[in-house]
Amino acid sequence: MQIYVNTCFSCSLPRYQIGMTLIEALVAVLILTVGLLGAAALQLNALKYTDSARMASQASFIAYDMLDRIRANSSADYQWGRIERAPTTSAGVRDLDLRDFQSNILGFAGESAKGAVAVSADEVTVSIRWDDSRATHTAGARETFTLTSRIGSASRVAQ
Fold this sequence. Notes:
Blueprint: E1 2-5, E2 15-18, H1 22-72, H2 93-109, E3 114-120, E4 123-131, H3 133-136, E5 142-150
Antiparallel strand pairs: 1-2, 3-4, 4-5
């Protein structure tokens, strides 16, 4: 952009000013600032959603681990509720599996996380529930991962 400026009072030749004005520089800085703030917000959201996906993957690993333990010891009753604490006195395989399940859940999502195992005939449902308010922007938002699978009914003991 060229602006005609006649600053020579003693001569009649015109001079041209070449360069940016202060207003143009401020507009450019404003546009750059808005772009950088948008990129920062995008990065923060990506971190939140990545954390949420990591939590769901970890819950999946824990649930599949528990399901494999139930299949390996299919004669035991693994029925266990969200509010119950895992057995601490017995040293049986079932009690050890439930303690490991509980400690895995607490280690992955803290004290607010809960787990449950429901056994119905030859079907097992493993549920894990945790606080996911960071990703959803809602206070107290809970996420649940539920895994349901059939296990061999011939190896199950009638209850």
